[in-house]
Fold each of these.
Amino acid sequence: MAAPASDAPVQKAPAPAIVPAIKDAAIAALITLGLAAPIMGLVTVQSLGKVQLEPHWMRVVLAVAVVFVGRLVLNLTLWAPRAGKSAPLITPEVEAQLKAVTRYAAPVALAIAVLLPFVPGVERTTVDLATLVLIYVMLGWGLNIVVGLAGLLDLGYVAFYAVGAYSYALLSTQFGVSFWLCLPLAGILAALWGVMLGFPVLRLRGDYLAIVTLAFGEIIRIVLLNWQSVTGGPNGIPNIPKPTFFGIDFTPGPGGFADTFGLTPSGVHRVIFMYYLILALALFTNYVVLRLRRLPIGRAWEALREDEIACRSLGVNTVNTKLTAFALGAMFAGFAGSFFATRQSLVSPESFTFIESALILAIVVLGGMGSQFGVALAALLMIGGFELFREFEDYRMMVFGVVMVLIMVWRPRGIVSSRSPSVFLKERKAISGSLVQEGHG
Amino acid sequence: MTTPPVDAPKLPEDVLIRVERLTMRFGGLVAVDDVSFDVRPGDVTALIGPNGAGKTTVFNCITGFYKPTVGRIALRKSATESWLLERLRDHQISRRAGVARTFQNIRLFGGMTVLENLLVAQHAPLMQASGMTVLGLLGTGGYRRAETHAIEKAKAWLERVDLIDRADDPAADLPYGDQRRLEIARAMCTEPVVLCLDEPAAGLNPRESADLADLLRSIRTDDGVAVLLIEHDMSVVMEISDHVVVLDYGKKIADGTPKAVRDDPKVIAAYLGVEDEEVEAVEREIEETGA
Ligand SMILES: Nc1ncnc2c1ncn2[C@@H]1O[C@H](COP(=O)(O)OP(=O)(O)OP(=O)(O)O)[C@@H](O)[C@H]1O
Ligand SMILES: [Mg+2]
């Protein structure tokens, strides 16, 4: 974003160069003019059954002026080339402090998560929101395998989430299979789809891979939408059964959860149970991913992200390595999907749009690709923040966008950008994010 | 996948790799033109030639990154068996045939530590020990032992290339010369029978070049690994190679001992970049003075 400013010649004198600053602002203003003239300047109005163009040039002038002045001011102040190199916003010392904080942050966050439903003052809605956040934490951790570790850009991750959700919905409503049996089945089915998509697609790299996975996500959604007889089309599948607590239902009355444990019947029990269920699933995901990272397969994923050609020269089967990343990532999405289905009691295609994939990807990128804690934090910020600012209505989209841009400007490698080595000889030194590749396909 | 790719001609005992009539075309460009040569076990074979002569292309064919347009590359496995390398997939050439390589523009896993780089090189045996991940995930099986063993091997190589103090640093942080040595150590961790090095001395200072020559000699004699070497630094080539193959514009123009090649007028002409007629003139001159 700040590139134009740093391109300006760096002068010895600390005084900002005024001429390049004006030039840069003028170019930005010109671009704004080009964009704003047709978009803001001409408005179509219906009059007497005809569509007419109504000019609004004042708006255009205003927009151009704002961009010019704003850019000029920024060029002369914030983006001004400093004497020598501009100091990075996050210096190594700050980085080290952050690192120290994150060491304690993860256990503290875990403790809070475990105790949350029993903290005084925490209401049912909060637990519900926390459940939602945890779904995204889990999805983020699953996608982190594919994007963060293996460096494969997957824009259709929601497809596997959908496969998991519909697997549970169909198996439970059609065949009466219990949640606990469906959960692994949904994961396996999603993983199978991951492999099926993976085979033809993994020859592609970078942008091509992104486009094909995006298309795959859409295909799944459109199939769900149109295969009326099986998926119920746009209405989806209703009345999906809830999971039981080791065979005990959450129903009031004899034999129910409250009755068995001598509690006063309350709807909160199920909410809390669902919260712990997703917490356990998310922690399981985290545990598996952390272990995988320390196994040869995890190292091969990261090596693949760093340099695929070198991997091939060392006898790493890159096709299998990519496929396992895809399949395992998909499996966790499948687990999360079946949890989602049972929580909502209803699945329909509109829950699995591209926006969902984009959101999960944003969580991974924002959190810091490859970092488990960063991803959890990003999910909390994005999903929690999103819900918190509900009262802003449409503006929250804008706020959300601005926040994302700000984070990317300050921490382009995500909130937790450093990489922790999987093995060490004497001491485990964090590796600066700037050395770590982002993968290329 | 498990059937060994045999059906190559039997190779005599003193040939490890036989490159036969290798031709590689890129569209209209003939990068390698009908080149044949042998790599003998226990030898350092140097492949030299001016820029763009096709040396790296020959390497890419041997290590499976390119499929040759014409020709074959046979590797001797035993007295009765030899494999055609061009029939193998690239990762199998390293894992099963035992041909390891380095790259002209170093390709390390920069964001991983030096130690991790050497562990990725041992991926195949470690993967097996982890029971294709399943046993490793459960924490059973001999995975722990295998990993300790792999780390020991990595440590031994780090000692040899003098990088043991940098084991926990990211590879991208190493100076250039260290990166070159690390790449060689990484290739050696795959336990190859032949090590292909693409300009390992490029960018090294004279001291580092001398150390490199020592390392390569030790790899040949102590580890018994044949070395196939592309190098521009003639002092390194002359010092350590047993056998030199010279390419120019994709064609082999000389093949023999370092001394014979050095005195070959065709080679001198290729390096000085003179026209063909002049080469003939030089040849005639030499013949006349010799007579
Ligand atoms: N993938 C490719 N596609 C098209 N042309 C190629 C390709 N690889 C190599 N070439 C061409 O083949 C010729 C030989 O290249 P090669 O890299 O093998 O030379 P080299 O002997 O290694 O040279 P150098 O000493 O500069 O490394 C060059 O003209 C090069 O441009
Ligand atoms: Mg080359």
Amino acid sequence: MLRATLKGMAARKARLILTSLAVVLGSAFIAAALVLTASIRATVDDLSGDSYTGSDVLVQPVEPENRGDRLVRDGVSAQTLDAIEASGDVAEVSTTVTWMINAIGDDGKIVGALAPTMAVNWGDESVERELRDGRAPETDGEVAVSAQFVTDSGLGLGDTVNAYSLATDETGYEIVGVYGYSGGRNSLSGATELAFTTTEAQRLVFGGEDVYTAVAATAVDGVSATELLASLEPAIGAESEALTRQAYVDDLNAENAEVTNVIGYFLLGFGLIAVFVSVFLIANTFSIVIAGRLKEIAMMRAIGASRGQIIRSVLAEASLLGAVASVVGAGIGVAAGAGLTSIVANNLLDTAGTSLAIPWTAPLAALAVGIGVTVLSALVPAVRASKIPPVEAMREAAKADKPIVAVTVTGLIITLVGATGIVLGLNEVFEADRTNLLAAAVGAGVVFVGVALLTAWLSKPLVALLGSVWAWSFAGRLGRLNASRNPRRTAVTAAALMIGVTLVTATATLLTSVKESLAERFETSIQAELFITGPVTSSVPATFDPALMDDIRDADGVAAAVELYYDLAQVDGTEQYVNATSDLQGGLELFGGEVADGSLDGLGEAETAVNESAAEQLGVGIGDTVSATFSRGTEAHEFTVVALLADNEDTDGWYVDPSYAGEFYTPKPTTALVDVADGADVDAVTASVEDILADEPAVSVQNHEEYLAQVTVFFDYAIIAIQLLLALAMIVAVIGVINTLVLSVLERTRELGMLRAIGMTRGQTTRMVTVESVTIALFGALLGIGTGLLLGWAVQQALVSKGVESFAVPTALIAAYFGAAVLVGLVAAIAPAVRASKVNILGAISYQ
Amino acid sequence: MPLANPPAPQITRTRSAVTASNVWRAYGSGEAQVVALRDVSVQFASGAFTAIMGPSGSGKSTLMHCLAGLDTTDRGSVLIGDTEISGLNDKDLTKLRRDKIGFIFQQFNLLPTLTAEENILLPASIAGAKPDPDWVARIIATLDLSERLTHKPTELSGGQQQRVACARALATRPEVVFADEPTGNLDTRSSGEVLRFLRRSVDDFGQTIVMVTHDPSAAAHADRVVFLADGQIVEDLHRPTADSVIDTMRGFENRVPLAGEAR
Ligand SMILES: Nc1ncnc2c1ncn2[C@@H]1O[C@H](COP(=O)(O)OP(=O)(O)OP(=O)(O)O)[C@@H](O)[C@H]1O
Ligand SMILES: [Mg+2]
């Protein structure tokens, strides 16, 4: 029996190669994901290993940030530094002063979009900096810059660079040196860097206090890191803590592992989707192959093969195929993982070298998944094959389609079960969030399977509908008829594309709806025409001089202008958003906010207004007093609540007088709104406001559209990222459609020969196969788009209470998905169509 | 070489629909070479029903395929009407088959996705042409298929399927219809129906038909029987009856070894 299986496999090489491509792809993805994750982690670990090389113990402030992220920084005190230097166990000490700053590039804009710009002290020896040009900064007005900064800013040696931090005003520095890092790198992980004298770095980071971000100490010979730690711990001040460098690197690695794990899960998810899709492909191929061998199998049964033997022979074929394919897949996956690692490492992390890590789980998982999936997928066709009665050998091969009632009913039930799961999960019926999420996710997966089973039933009407596009061409009509000839086969083939398209459509629909909801709320609630803000991605929030607000208010055509200061402060011991503005009443009007209770008339120095739910959270009402400490403040201030504001996402928070802004995280306003007077020319007003702000390069004047585009830019990135999945789905779908078509063409050789004999041209034959292919692909896309829109809508409905009020259809993307489906159909049709058009007429018609 | 001179082609007034002159066709090369047709010259008159007979492997199908432009000849020429087909490329040959030739196969070869009617109109549809509705209606009536037009091939009996195939072959009024053992898969009754229809289409519609058959009683429906043996025409019988065909077959079966010796 095994020999017969092997011989059979040898005779069907082309089919097997096609089938195995799906397995190869799935297992390659899994192996690649695992290798990439492990390698990036190893590479990043190496990178962390670079920091503070040579030192043994690090001393850091206990709480580097006062409150929250990005707030005013604390450092290791000078006394602590003295104490460390005085220790007899310490051989060498290096100090680090560093944090994010904003630098203005040659184009007047803030340098760097996503990677931060860092200020460092040149004297810091914990990082190896190699001077390439010029010299080190010697005075506070001088700076050396990293080579990456030169590239990103357009500035160079001898130029003056303007920079500022949260603690300083914009200052000009002369660039006296350009440096790189060990290994010829231009940057560390893509960040740009400016190296100042230690005092200037302290001014930028700590507002001039003589403190340090970190102090690294190297032990004298004979003293171990732990011994040094023990001897330093009693010496350092209460503001600081000491840890060995090893512990520091371990912490850093653990932090990085969290990020790399997310990347890994993302890739593994892709791999699993590819595997899920290949189940359909493999099952389909085995079904078709078995259909083609109906007579052969019946003959085997007639001459005495048992049902078990038939099943075993199919499964043996599947395991062999799965094994070979997953070995190839694992190999490709490991190689791809390694290649991707070096691309990621060189382009995104900018590391000196990459460390390739191949976890043993990678090939193992690829093999297990590849073989497992192939055998499982072949199970149903194998059992079906074993049920072929021996009399089948004597009957004519051509038979009517098997009924699809059973599949359809099963599909309906499964779809309903999945839908129930989604509904339950989205309505948070279960107690644990995790259970809800799981119910929704599993439900979505189950819906896929259900809809996939329903595809056979849906294929007749939908394929007919899609095929009507080609009604004008007879060859096209034949192609369409061929596509609906075997609903099961068409359905399973289309399902491969459906799954990917469903996922991207659902995600794109949801993201578009979120975007649209934001835009809609924005349009209806915000009265101001112009916004003055800086880029959302800058390291230090962009600010401008509040004195300019008077000029703006005085400008022609400006009805009102309101500036906003922002802080994350401690109010009655909890973290709260605090805003300040010189014109709260005007600000509320422009943002569409309302006073619910009390009065805003003359918000005094010791008075505050707050939105209702924030007041409720602290249990305060009108007339009550709260105590607030601002980010840079050293003491608490008392405020009496005089007004409650209606809840409104755009105006929520506490409002105080701008005289406190000096104690805010950003002492200058970060945003301003400008209301253009009715009848005034918006463009002209924009131009005059821009003129007023000419000396404030960090901020720009934007209209509604520009501002929205800036706020929603992350959604655009997310939508683009998710399209990668589409590419994967397309590749798998192409393989699936080729597979089905090649097998169909083989099956219909005789028919093709007849058509060619009675006068069908090669061109018509090609068109016929192409139409079949495109129809199947479009059918898949249609199902995917339909299911995806439904899923997207379901999630959007569930999120209405969270502010996703509008349902928006990403029409352009959906049009693109149809385009992609046509492309899949066209690409997949090439080989089968050529094969069909070259069919040997004589061979075909005399073939029994 | 008694058989080296095939019977002289009939010089008749009637225009000839298909003319083969000195056609050679060999398969394979070297030791394994099989000469399927050796120097065959034959004409098929327009409006006549000709049967081709001969032992298995004698080259009947090969001759038909060469005449129909499905197979290429090694040497010699084939004319369909006035068109020389030897030099035509695939595209022109396809067009020629589509417009001038009808086919009836032993295996019926209908498209399972199309109804009987659509199958009948298939060649016209492929050509993007509108068939003459009166003519098609007449054929359908003659073949007694009116009740079956909306049926798919799987819902038809073998005889009905072959009648649909006959209708398909005639629907475009081709110059000539080639039928390779059209009754090979049918029972006596169905065979009779198909043969009577072929006969009628010649008598009533002036159709030209060339039919390969193994069955002497089928050949008896023809106006003329051409006998092939070992790739050569060995006999040409006019106005055959079943008996005369059987006699002739007996006759040349005895002579076949001679042909073998002549090699
Ligand atoms: N494609 C081919 N390759 C090789 N030899 C072929 C091919 N086609 C036909 N032959 C050979 O040519 C000879 C004539 O074959 P052909 O099919 O014309 O015979 P036939 O008279 O139609 O026989 P039958 O009555 O069995 O159908 C045979 O010897 C056959 O083996
Ligand atoms: Mg034959």
Amino acid sequence: MAYEFTKEDLEQIEEIKSRYPEVMPATLPVLWVAQNRFGHVNPEVQNLVAETLGLPHSHVHGVAEFYTQYYKEEKGKYVLDVCTCLSCQLCGGYDILHYLEEKLGIKKGETTQDGMFTLNEAECLGACGYAPMLQVTNDQYVNHLTKEKIDMLVESLKKGEKPEYEKIGMPQRENI
Amino acid sequence: MPEVIIDGKSYKYEGQHKLLQFIQDLGKEVPFFCYHPSMSIPANCRQCMVKVGQYIVDRESGKHELDDKGNKVIRWFPKLQTACNIDIADGMVVHTQETDELVRRAQKDNLELILINHPLDCPICDQAGECPLQIQTYKYGPEGSRFEVKKVHKPKRIQLGPRVVLDAERCINCTRCTRFTQEISKTHQLTITRRGDKNYPTTAPGTEFNDPYSLNTVDICPVGALTSADFRFKARVWEMNQTPGIDITNGKGCNIDLWTRDNIVLRITPRFNMDVNDHWMPDAGREAYKIFNENRISRPLQKLDGEQILSSWNNAVATFIEQIDNTENKNILVIGSPHASVEENYSLAKFSNLMGLNQPVFVPHLKEGAGDGFLITDDQAPNTVGCRLLGFTELDQKALKKEVVKASLVILLSDHLLDRNVLTHKDLDGKFLITLATNHSETTKRADLVIPVTTAAEHAASYVNVDGRIQRTFRAKETKYTNRRLDMEMSEGRLDRYGTNFDNWVTEDNKIDCLPVWRFISEAAGSKGLDLVLSDGREIMDEISSTHNPFKGVSYQLMDEQAGILLINDSKEKTNA
Ligand code: SF4
Ligand code: FES
Ligand code: FES
């Protein structure tokens, strides 16, 4: 498949370029434009970005490879990053991961047949206070996970409903 | 004048200097990996740590603050500094590993970190023996490692391009190679991929590292991560000996080193010359090592009944003279060569002159559009300007053909005119062709008499590059008639020093049966009773400098001292680069 930016994308890219004195710093935001458009930045998309910006292919490749949030291959519609770092692990992060593996019938790092979900194991996402938790496609956090919560999440994602952004206050003294 | 105090000694300086370079220029040392004097300074290896500070001076009195023992008190930077990217400043106090335990410790710990995932496979690594990582670790590294866990594995034996192989596990991510493609060759072919302990240099997907200068990254890689696909596993560095030379594959005259073992040239690497090639050379020039070893003409060849057979030197000299004697002078054409050195061309011209033959002509060897404005030139020959300065008549193809038609005896110096399509077999029909040459070719195959002569690896001779700079070679490889141990100018490696003809590491066959052009010419002249004795390049150059104006003042000594001498400043004389 040949990847191409739409007219709107190109306008947006021009606008991004105008923010910087040189083209190189536009690499990161333009990779986002590409990932939002194509769902990933595989080598072909990286080349498209490089050519659109007039930068060396190797440069765009190096940048895309550096950041884990850029997907270097096609992923499911929803990417579930389950945190298994220390706090989440202690609060059952692995249980959540294994439950999801069972439920979706895939192993971590894989994508479901219908292309709906990709399941990943992630390092600390900075929400240790609400462990265990996962992140949906570089975006919303789903916190205080339980098996029931996972079931609900998967159901609603299948329907195309993304979770709400959750705001959790700091614990108050009397609650401790 | 401003001054810096390094390890308790004060040094005056002028201008701006980076501390690491300044220390090196003093002949002292601080270990480092990522710094390279010809590229930008990323300070990413962290090996060049030193302690930097300033004496505390009382503002009012202007006096140094002293401690109890009367020593000047120093205000140190809160942390150690990387010497490569810090500018020296007046009154700066520096402690290197030589005087400071903290610096020693930092350098040691940094090496321990760098080596965590390094495979430590020096015994099978090509870089061993010329590896900064190996050397610095011996000198400044820890004796062991505390990281006794499984190492991270990365891609190995990756063919990055046609000439360069990557072992990512050995890489320390200094970015010298990527900076080279960004800043020097400007092909931007390399980048660092991934991150953390998984990163390594690579090309963009679907592309290969075919940069015409790619092998320079092998030279500057401070570890064995990048190796030459061609040279890999051919020799250990300490078995070879290294002799300075000049690249003869194009007009730039890059300064090079020839690496030989048992009289075979195994590789060519660039030698620093600020005015010519900096630290670099094109990949094509490195291929030339083959010219010195392979397909060489050894012993004179003479045509008998249409077939070339090995002859003797006596026969060759006799035939050479006989042919000249039996041909009317006006039917003899002497052709010089931009591929041969100044001394060789001069010797031929002098002989020609004494015999009453024509002043040699020559045909430049240009490839329009081949040059890149950097180190690759349109000029395919190393000495076009040299021929011009000797006063040879420059001919184009048509003009040469006209001359050849008139001749019945053609004497041709080191130029494969048939192979480069200047002449055709038809042009030479019925003519006696004598060629003095180094390697077999279409042209030498056609010749009726072939005199094997020395290559730039076997004689000391000079070449004038496209910019009018005269530079000279040294003898790197023995012929049947030279001897490393007797020739004080030849370098001697371990094997040369301790080997004998009866060892299996000395191969007599690697010495070519050939003579320098001037030796052959002297033999020929001698048999004619002419007073012409040309013994070696050094003396010939002295003679040229006293007889040829453009070469005035040129001598081997001066060339050696100044890394070449610029003979002309006016660009008319130069070939198009
Ligand atoms: S391959 Fe060599 S030059 Fe390139 S980053 Fe690694 S260590 Fe440095
Ligand atoms: S450990 Fe899971 S968010 Fe920090
Ligand atoms: S040489 Fe200074 S940090 Fe690498």
Amino acid sequence: MIFNMNVLKNIELIRKDFPILSTKVNGNQLIYLDNAATSQTPNCVIESISDYYKNLNSNIHRGVHKLSQLATEKYEESRKKFKKHFNARSTSEIIFTPGTTHSINLISNGFIKFLKKDDEIIVSQLEHHSNIVPWQMLCEKTGAIMKVIPMNEKGELDLNVFATLLNDKTKVVFVNHVSNALGTVNPIDIIIEKSHNAGAAVLIDGAQAAPHFEIDVKKLNVDFYVCSAHKLCGPTGVGILYGKKEWLEKLPPYQGGGEMIDQVSFEKSTYADLPNKFEAGTPNISGVIASGIGLDYINKIGLTNIKEYEDYLLDYATSKLKEIDGIKIYGESKTKVSVISFNIGEIHPYDIGSVIDNLGIAVRTGHHCAQPIMDYFDIPGTIRISFSFYNTIEEINILIDALKKASKMLS
Amino acid sequence: MKISNIQNEIVEEFDIFDTWMDKYEYLIELGKSVPKISDQNKSEDNIIKGCQSKVWLHAEKEDGLIKFYADSDAIITKGIISLLIRTFSNQNPTDIINANTDFIDKIGLRQHLSANRANGLNNMIKKIKYYAIAFSKLN
Ligand SMILES: Cc1ncc(COP(=O)(O)O)c(C=O)c1O
């Protein structure tokens, strides 16, 4: 595996930007391998939040005073950064929300307007509950029917079956770009094209994709693309929702309130233009600004470098894990990000997680909010490790030793 | 033996071990020795919520004493269960209702349990006490 040596040389410097990485757990150096749940926060993001409250705090879009203008500028600058990063056509296509879950609810709720009884919508078996439940609620409200794209043993979606599910009743298809439980990168370009040919809109849940590689919404020709800043070195409580302008104009607002209106009277109110129509009330101003700083940080390292280095970690960890007796890795697609789900023999994933937690290693255990995947494999859950660009080969070696120790204790 | 005496005995046993690793290993050994419960008692009704692992708890009353049977699909959880069964099984309802349950803290294990597992443990103790209350009302 060839990778950019410069990234490796800089890794110690990069780690210094993340104060939490020097935390001790139970006397051991923290090894943070739960990056798919949330990424750690670099100093520049932490400082941005504190700087906001020290120097800028004021409400945006409404004050004539200097602070309000400055805060508004910074907030809108963040929108410009995400517009450029995802290659949207205009800033009015970028909506800030509290997170991926909220974004999906915003869209699914809007689709009440477009669905009638017996219309069909399509989900995949690989989804996070966030991309299942809001749509089930939509079905309950409209009488629409949900169809499921199945997956195979390797954790890849079956596109042949998908083709048979599409028909002129299909209104919307919602699939993740990358599976949070297995790491599979789904062929969303094909899914988008086929769905469009059938006349259906497409929402892509990019929560697990955005931290790992470049995304070009224009090239993908996707209708909606959503992700969370807290997985992109940003703070919690900020989501980025890209929507094609045509769609966002057609969709009804999700919440009513200040900021999203044009004129209000008791007879009728008219709504503001995009993007404000979907940003009712005072938003998470400091969070949105800091999310832009987090994005800058990632782009300074470069997603191409990040991908190369994380692929290297993924390959190394996968081959090392395979040396452990009784290991079973779930999700062996050829296209994967740096997420590995596994179990060791008959040992409950929770037991392994508890033992290695005491050794300072943070992993996720359980169903990872993706119970349909666990049902497919007929297991209660898995141990999931997920790497970011600040993880190291050394950390993987310590993990492997800890897993061997835990497995010996527990078998 | 009285509940408090059993608890003291358990605390003393764990005192021998210096490191959490050794305590864990002992707990795992105890987990392995928990007798299996019948499939019939592994029902949905007997599942205790709030655990990442599944826990089943069943109770019966015999000669005025409550007998507890429990199981889990995770071995560390089973170890904890074994301590609870040893403490509370074959006791009368009133003693169970009045029992102190801080022995788990005294063992020095709680800080080594994840929040999720600690929560599961609290739910197990709660359920044991509920059983005792229910059986005491049946008298
Ligand atoms: C694929 C996927 N979708 C949605 C979500 C939900 O994101 P949030 O909790 O930020 O709303 C997650 C978070 O883990 C995820 O991995």
